[in-house]
Amino acid sequence: xxxxxxxxxxxxxxxxxxxxxxxxxxxxxxxxxxxxxxxxxxxxxxxxxxxxxxxxxxxxxxxxxxxxxxxxxxxxxxxxxxxxxxxxxxxxxxxxxxxxxxxxxxxxxxxxxxxxxxxxxxxxxxxxxxxxxxxxxxxxxxxxxxxxxxxxxxxxxxxxxxxxxxxxxxxxxxxxxxxxxxxxxxxxxxxxxxxxxxxxxxxxxxxxxxxxxxxxxxxxxxxxxxxxxxxxxxxxxxxxxxxxxxxxxxxxxxxxxxxxxxxxxxxxxxxxxxxxxxxxxxxxxxxxxxxxxxxxxxxxxxxxxxxxxxxxxxxxxxxxxxxxxxxxxxxxxxxxxxxxxxxxxxxxxxxxxxxxxxxxxxxxxxxxxxxxxxxxxxxxxxxxxxxxxxxxxxxxxxxxxxxxxxxxxxxxxxxxxxxxxxxxxxxxxxxxxxxxxxxxxxxxxxxxxxxxxxxxxxxxxxxxxxxxxxxxxxxxxxxxxxxxxxxxxxxxxxxxxxxxxxxxxxxxxxxxxxxxxxxxxxxxxxxxxxxxxxxxxxxxxxxxxxxxxxxxxxxxxxxxxxxxxxxxxxxxxxxxxx
Length: 578
Prior knowledge:
Layout: H1 3-14, H2 18-48, E1 49-51, E2 54-55, H3 57-106, H4 109-113, H5 117-159, H6 161-170, H7 172-208, H8 210-215, H9 219-245, H10 247-273, H11 279-301, H12 303-320, E3 341-348, E4 357-364, E5 369-373, H13 380-387, E6 395-400, E7 403-404, H14 410-415, E8 417-420, E9 429-430, H15 431-435, H16 444-453, H17 457-461, E10 470-471, H18 479-493, E11 497-501, H19 509-522, E12 527-531, E13 543-548, E14 551-556, H20 558-564, H21 567-576
Parallel strand pairs: 5-12, 5-13, 8-11, 11-12
Antiparallel strand pairs: 1-2, 3-4, 3-6, 6-7, 9-10, 13-14
Helix pairs in contact: 1-12, 2-3, 2-5, 2-11, 3-5, 5-6, 5-7, 5-11, 5-12, 6-10, 7-9, 7-10, 7-12, 10-11, 16-18, 20-21
């Protein structure tokens, strides 16, 4: 994304805070005016001190009071500028984080699946922070700097246009040098942000899966990978810092040349005019020359931060520009479904070059229990993703109660499904909040009844605060206990359709038998899709679908498939043969 386009979008982000922007400009002008008046008053003070024992104290005291008043006004105004800029920067930061987080909810799952979670987190957290810091620093320096440059330039031309011309023609060299270097710093900071995001993603992945890393003694390999990423980040950071660090010394050299030229030419004019251009006026002029060059230094100092902020803003806007999943707000809701599900001539592929489903057909009558079995990678989980509309089909259609799922809202469709997955997830909240996630209006009795049905009530009551104990990623619960809570959560919702993906994989055999009994009660009269690797758990399913290579190889009851002696029989005997 071009920097000009990024900058225009930043301005659009600032539009809601136009009032603070106006306050910043006004306070900056007051601050600059007060600071510009000080050198003039100091020059007047110099002129009333004629010599030893020859000081006009009656004129000096008001001038000194004026200097003090200007200093106070400048300090107060600068404080207001800082407050307003802080408000702008951190409000924009909050807006950016809100927009990016909300954007994630509107993106298709394919976007999340195709990227490391750490990279996405880096955009929302780290890049937005860098963006806000650069914005804050840039605004604080920019407004006062521009006002100071324009104000000093006008005063210098009024006082002595000959010297002002020297300053006017020499100072732009600072801008030329800064512009030359800034073109290179943007690229280097962009590369730095990319490598930093890659490293953040790697750290996030390794911390999340540290048990697996230790189990396979993969620490040294990970350390080597991290060291390689760290080295690339070091080189990118050093290159970015090197280019950005050359700006300030270069501009300071030009400013020193400007100051020397003003001092020399001013002294010659004082001598040539015989006092018409006084020493006090030269003192003021030297102060103005310093004030004129100082903003250039300050502006060039923030160029590096600005370039970094622009690079981070580019990554933020890239996320915000990602194509969202099609909206379904205009479609009707499904209501409470009867539970008849059909897939007709479904085609789907994660990668267009490698189709997974080419002509998939299935029918699940309302209230029937459909088991799905097959080897890893055959498309079982993909089928569930399509039923839930986590992904949309590329061809054909999926119907619920005769309605194409693409013609109803996703929210109403998913409210009709209850899911218990092999991978458990609990949010960082109380047991009560986790259980009631899908049934906010349930009563205490209903919640406890669901927990008892899932055989979770006993261990919940042994927790420090019972149902008010905070759980989540704290390690309070075992994997089996977490899965029991997920089962209880679905039992509390009592949806018309269920999806069970190895729902009891982390539970001991005795508890599994109890939970299976609870599930059998829950599944009565409900359409159920059961993904199972342990075939003993699906003997009583109304129909069993055997999948392979994106196709339904065979289907029937447990007895029918065993009698047929096909793929299912081979899978079954492979599990139970001695």
